[in-house]
């Protein structure tokens, strides 16, 4: 091998080595695995869940199933792949660490159950639907998990999500969460209400040996605050009570779609999170049937058509359990905000001419009586005139 060939050979070897070395150097680090969006669930139910049986939303479906209404679920994200929600979940947004997933990754599983309660569609083969099965879900992720947190950034993130929902076509906002009372959160609620968006929120779940405290955003004016009831209609013990509670819905032994696969997750402890979802579904039906109603009008309709307790309103269940059929179909007039039980019998206003009417009635009755007597004695008077007012006598038999 001459020197020129040797140099060429060395050059080729160096090029190959450089190429191999370059290959090694430019290989990217193994990509981090995409987050698993929640856990799979168990088998689908074989019977209608008690909550659906109790509320009977199908009775209102002859009028509307919620078509054209968008419900923003500000939660832990919403899976878009479960058969119950496939095709019903819009691209949303993420405000807590999963950019690019458009709110459709639910690692906690909470938001997917909430969305299924609201808008789960018919025709999946399971006896399970949402309250408004033709409504759509706008998923906004603000929660990484369902653990309690005092993160001071969370109210601001929730406020951003509320504004985003109001600006992107939401008709109803569901807030199955509780956070700190902050001005930015209150301002966001007011912003949504001013844009005619109905806002529904969980009244809150108290921990053991904890006293009832107002829960936010549920306690803000204009928000429909929801408490939980059990299968017998009784107040769930963990559900926070307060004067701000407006209505109640099922909040114990809840079932809903899992974020992975086609299974279902059971939530035996329930909570006002899921009760709020049922009310958001009813609000979606009302908005679809009565699109011109303001958020205040919708709240009025939900409270005045609820299955109210005997005292009309109390701190545990508000005006009572929502009633989808009556909320959609009732013709409501204006009336004062009194307990519903007291409204069953209307009170007539005082009649300033009442005593004159009573005297007139008595005079008419006496006059009618005298007229009747005169008519009865008229034949007797005529006979008396013919006889010259002499007493009559019986005929003698011998004269016959």
From TrEMBL:
GO terms for cellular component: plasma membrane. Keywords: Cell membrane, Hydrolase, Membrane, Protease, Serine protease, Signal, Transmembrane, Transmembrane helix. The chain crosses the membrane at residues 359-384. This is Type VII secretion-associated serine protease mycosin. Residues 1-33 form the signal peptide. It is a single-pass membrane protein. GO terms for biological process: proteolysis. The active site is at 75 (charge relay system), 110 (charge relay system), 273 (charge relay system). It is found in: Cell membrane. InterPro entries: Peptidase_S8/S53_dom, Peptidase_S8/S53_dom_sf, Peptidase_S8_Asp-AS, Peptidase_S8_His-AS, Peptidase_S8_subtilisin-like, Peptidase_S8_subtilisin-rel, T7SS_pept_S8A_mycosin. Pfam families: Peptidase_S8. Residues 66-320 form the Peptidase S8/S53 domain. The keyword Cell inner membrane does not apply. Belongs to the peptidase S8 family. GO terms for molecular function: serine-type endopeptidase activity.
């Amino acid at each position: 091998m001459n020197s020129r060939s040797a140099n060429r050979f060395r050059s080729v070897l160096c090029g190959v080595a450089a190429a191999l070395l370059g290959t090694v150097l430019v290989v990217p680090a193994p990509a981090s695995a995409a987050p698993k969006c929640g856990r799979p669930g168990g088998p689908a139910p074989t019977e209608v869940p008690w909550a659906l049986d109790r509320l009977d939303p199908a009775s209102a479906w002859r009028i509307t199933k919620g078509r054209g209404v968008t419900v923003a679920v500000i939660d832990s994200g919403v899976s878009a792949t479960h058969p119950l929600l496939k095709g019903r979940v819009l691209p949303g947004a993420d405000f807590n660490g999963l950019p690019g997933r458009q709110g459709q990754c639910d690692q906690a599983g909470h938001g997917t159950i909430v969305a299924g309660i609201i808008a789960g569609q018919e025709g999946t083969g399971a006896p399970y639907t949402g309250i408004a099965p033709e409504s759509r879900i706008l998923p906004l992720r603000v929660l990484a998990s369902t653990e309690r947190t005092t993160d001071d950034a969370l109210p601001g993130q929730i406020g951003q999500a509320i504004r985003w929902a109001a600006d992107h076509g939401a008709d109803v906002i569901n807030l199955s969460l509780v956070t700190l009372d902050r001005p930015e959160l209150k301002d966001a609620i007011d912003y949504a209400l001013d844009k005619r968006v109905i806002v529904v929120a969980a009244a809150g779940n108290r921990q053991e040996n904890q006293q009832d405290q107002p829960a936010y955003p549920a306690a803000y004016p204009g928000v429909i605050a929801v408490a939980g009831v059990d299968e017998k209609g009784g107040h769930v013990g963990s559900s926070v009570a307060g004067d701000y509670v407006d209505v109640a819905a099922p909040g114990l032994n809840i079932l809903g779609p899992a974020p992975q696969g086609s299974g279902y997750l059971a939530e035996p402890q329930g909570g006002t999170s899921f009760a709020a979802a049922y009310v958001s579904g009813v609000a979606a039906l009302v908005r679809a049937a009565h699109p011109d109603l303001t958020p205040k009008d919708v709240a009025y309709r939900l409270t005045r058509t609820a299955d109210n307790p005997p005292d009309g309103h109390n701190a545990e269940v508000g005006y009572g359990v929502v009633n989808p059929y009556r909320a959609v179909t009732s013709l409501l007039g204006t009336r004062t905000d009194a307990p519903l039980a007291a409204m069953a019998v209307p009170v007539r206003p005082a009649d300033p001419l009442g005593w004159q009417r009573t005297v007139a009635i008595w005079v008419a009755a006496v006059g009618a009586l005298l007229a009747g007597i005169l008519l009865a004695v008229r034949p007797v008077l005529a006979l008396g005139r013919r006889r010259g007012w002499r007493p009559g006598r019986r005929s003698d038999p011998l004269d016959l």
